Amino acid sequence: MGLKLSKQVPTGCAPSPTSDQVKPPVIDSTPVQPSSPDMATIHDDDERLLARIGYKQELRREFSKWSTVSYAISILGVLGSVPATFSSPLAAGGPATAVWCWFIGSCMAMCIGSSVAELVSAYPTAGGMYFVTKHVVPKEQVAIFAWIQGWCNLLGQTAGVSSVTYTVSQMLLACASMNSTYQDGQYSYSPTAAQTVFVSIGLLCIMGVICSLTTKSLHRIVFWFAPINILATIGICTAILVLTPEKQSAEWVFTHVTDGSGWGSKVFSFLLGFLSVAWTMTDYDGTTHMSEETHDAAIQGPIAIRSAVLVSGVFGWILTVSMCFCINDLDSILKSPTGMPAAQIFLNAGGRTGGTIMWFFVILVQFFTGCSAMLADTRMAYAFARDEALPFSKLLANVNEYTHTPVNAVWFVVVFSSALNLIAIGSTETATAIFNVTAPALDVSYISVILAHMIYRHRVKFIEGPFTLGRWGTPINLVSVTWVIFISTVLFFPPTKPVTAANMNYAICVAAFIAIFSLSWWWLTARDKYTGPRTKEMIESVPEEDYDDLFSDGQASLDEKEEGRSSFENEQVQVKGHVRSVRKQKRVAFAEITDGSTAQSLQAILKPDQAASLSTGAAIEVSGTWKACPPGKEQKHELQATAVRLVGEADPETYPIQKKYHSPDFLRQIPHLRLRTPFQSLLARFRSECIYQLGQTFRSHPHGHFVQVQPPLITSSDCEGAGETFTVVPQSTSSASVKDADHFFRSPKYLTVSSQLHLEAYAAELGNVWTLSPTFRAEKSDTPRHLSEFYMLEAEVNFASNVDTLTDLVEYLIRDLTRRVHDTPAGQEVLSAKRSGESGDDSAGSDEGLRKRWDALLSESSWPRVTYTRVIEMLEDAVANRGASFTFPPVWSDGLQLEHEKYIVDHLFGGVPVFVTDYPKKVKPFYMAPSETSAGSGKPTVACFDLLLPEISEVVGGSLREHRLPELIQNMREHGLIKNAPSDEQAEKAAESKYPSLLPGEDLGHLQWYADLRRWGGAPHGGFGLGFDRLIGYLAGVSSLRDVVPFPRYFGRADC
């Protein structure tokens, strides 16, 4: 490893790099294994996390923060679910039972939701809590535990979908009943069980169609679920309170408890009232089942879960209280001919028309709930099938190539749920029992994982996600487990007494059937082939307490010499660095130390008292003996400490960088600290190596030595002519709109957008020149592809007369730089490290996808050159004959959009770098020379090129410069860069010697110096600009420039 170790000598000097400095590592040291080959093409951090967990990204991430929150709220569906279940607490214990059961149940739901959120934040996959089982129980118990938990969750989800659609069917038919003739205390239309079932199956099919849409379409639909739910709830509460003539007193609403259950106890009747809130406030991990379709799922999922419980709890309580105030007669409401007390309350308040309108919104919201529940169920079925736990798993795990959603799993759920609903034709009691098992089955599936995490937390390593409960975790988990066990027991009791075949609660029987079914299947066949969630075994368990076993925690060692021995073995050494993590045991402690020289950490063995004051982030000095580990262990060496000195403390309660996953958005908020994460540190070293090797490449160019120059950063012009500049003014200047004489530089000046113009001045004398300089562009572009401050590699070649000279130079430059960096320690580390901005250790192994990317750049095959005109023809042909579709149709005069560039590289040229040359003159800057073939063609083009790389498109742009003065001035005139001199100066200008090619009254202004380069000794020349940060990101496998640059500046952000 590359940590700077020194033998302890009196002088304190470090050993000579040639003799004692250890080689940088080729082994990475995080408790995760290599990412998949697709890691090279990962586009955001969610995909990196998914790959780190062990799955390939197959679904499209389209759900935003707000659509995720809307989805979470809609899956609870307050306005639909509360009226649907209002009769249960009302009949069991009266209005106070309904009111306070909802309030208490909501508080308990927040505890359960928070516990679930903490766990799924660490592993946000379509499997939800089912997948988390892999990381909370010992390896030997994973298979059976995940099997039972998965079936419990899947059957609970499916029963929930069935019950919601059955309820929506009941509501629709109740609405039809409400609007039929009312005679002799009943309505003329009363739906049959068969009608209810068949309507529910029709609803399931409609929901199935919706759930089969693309994720982007689902995002757009789901986005409106919560606003409609909340606004309709507010509207209905207001309407019934205003329109109901006689309302109950607050005392009656909040204190009146009855013994409607017949159990002879108001207390027990009160407990039975929790059915409504238990049935509504469940499916907490439903949001997590959409994780693989949600941006930043590890953060947005927990936010959505807790927000949904809070919003649903508040509005559900308001709705419950409002309906209780509007109960004129409790008995008549409970005996409503509609079959639903809530419907009768609406009918009493608004009459047939008003009641129907209010009931319509209840049905609509409940339909939304059904869609959301089906989405969660289908993703759970997809995840379960992906692990081969279902019949026809290969078919059900298939992702549709057109919608990029698991369509087969959707219709599996539709058929499964329809089968459950069909039971109601023969036995309503059996169907009701299946529906009633929804809440207990789901809640038990949650608390089993929570409980396992509590029991095995010191035995099984669990890498926390960005959302944690901290010190409140244990008490909240205990409350959640206790509550679910208690309430599930209560809800298995028959709701009324005396118990008959008609009112018996058969949910306990269904639950027993689920247990027997899953265990029987397990013992008969599944145990021989099912191994649990099938990942790549990416995250290892915490070792056992046994001292020797603790050595096998996956920490890598210093590089050894060929004979397997380190040059420091058995020597006294000293390490200075920061603590990446510390694990304290009773008899021994382990600290991982890094000094920024490598992504790999060094493991130090400490005594408990030496580690007592250590925490993650602390700066320390450790002295000790560099010892070899016993044979057969993954790590080869460790530092056995003899002395530890705490140099700088880091409060573990406030230090933001911990050994866990951190999202890019979080790390961007602390750019001054994110460099302490392994991969960000590696990127900084990799950038340094690239800059060094870049100089070597330019010095060794076979056709001439290039001189590195330093052009100014403050300029008088906008090289691109787009006006997207930052104006430079002193702090004391209140406005840039001042007279030239009052400017600090006597005229407006700007931060450079390109060094090209000044490089041309250098090249006129020095020949071939290059620079790597910061550039600044005031583009209000909030995308990961653009920054306001970035580094541009620019070069100019004098006496260059054709574009091929420039494209050959660019191809040589990138290929030679890649070759040189490839053979360096930093290059090898990049090829073996995970592509992530998170904290913690990095994964060992190699990213084959990234290696293929490098191999393509290193290939000796020449990169194709194609003209812009030909490319447009090929794109038009693709649209006409190959079924290609673009948001912006390819038009010759409009230039190329990003989607065109990606299609050119990926489809037209098979994924290799491509030079596109000779763009239309009108879309390029004024300084470009005309193409040799553009004269007389009617479509004037310029001698320029763009280099398009696979996956990221344009990286380099260059051109021949217009070296002829008359033609340059005409170009400047066409681009509006030549000013008219003020009228009082025209006479003086005319008296002076006339500038060549200028018309009377014209003034070159701040660009006269640039024209002078042509006026006196101008020669053909050309150059290019390469986005250095974009190239670094391409080589490192990081797509967002905000994660490539340590301190990114972009629209709206420049934190420090």
Question: Could you explain how this protein is built, in words?
Answer:
- It is a single chain.
- By secondary structure, this protein is an alpha+beta fold.
- The chain folds into four domains: 464 residues, Up-down Bundle (Amino acid/polyamine transporter I); 86 residues, Nucleic acid-binding proteins (OB fold (Dihydrolipoamide Acetyltransferase, E2P)); 206 residues, Bira Bifunctional Protein, Domain 2 (BirA Bifunctional Protein, domain 2, 2-Layer Sandwich), CATH 3.30.930; 47 residues, no CATH class.
- Helix content is 46%, strand content 11%.
- The protein contains 36 helices and 21 strands.
- Strands 9-13-14-21-18-17-16-15 form an eight-stranded mixed β-sheet. The chain has a five-stranded mixed barrel with strand order 4-5-6-8-7.
- Helix 3 packs across helix 15.
- It is globular.
- The N terminus is likely disordered.
By DSSP (H or I, 4+ residues per run), the number of helices equals 36
Uncertain regions spanning at least 5 consecutive residues: 1-45, 536-564, 836-846
Structural class: alpha+beta
User: How many DSSP-defined strands?
Assistant: 21
Which band does the percent of strand residues land in? 5-15%
Give the CATH architecture of the largest domain: Up-down Bundle
Report the CATH topology name of the largest domain: Amino acid/polyamine transporter I
Q: What's the number of domains?
A: 4
Distance between the termini: 32 Å
The geometry reads as globular
Q: In angstroms, what is the radius of gyration?
A: 35 Å
Task: Determine the mean pLDDT.
Answer: 80
Which homologous superfamily in CATH is the superfamily of the largest domain? Amino acid/polyamine transporter I
The CATH class of the largest domain is identified as: Mainly Alpha
Helix content: 40-55%
Largest sheet: 8 strands, mixed
Q: Trace the largest sheet across and list its strands.
A: 9-13-14-21-18-17-16-15
GO molecular function, one term: ATP binding
EC number: 6.1.1.22
Transmembrane segments: 69-91, 97-123, 193-214, 221-243, 303-330, 357-376, 409-427, 433-456, 476-493, 505-524
Membrane topology: Multi-pass membrane protein
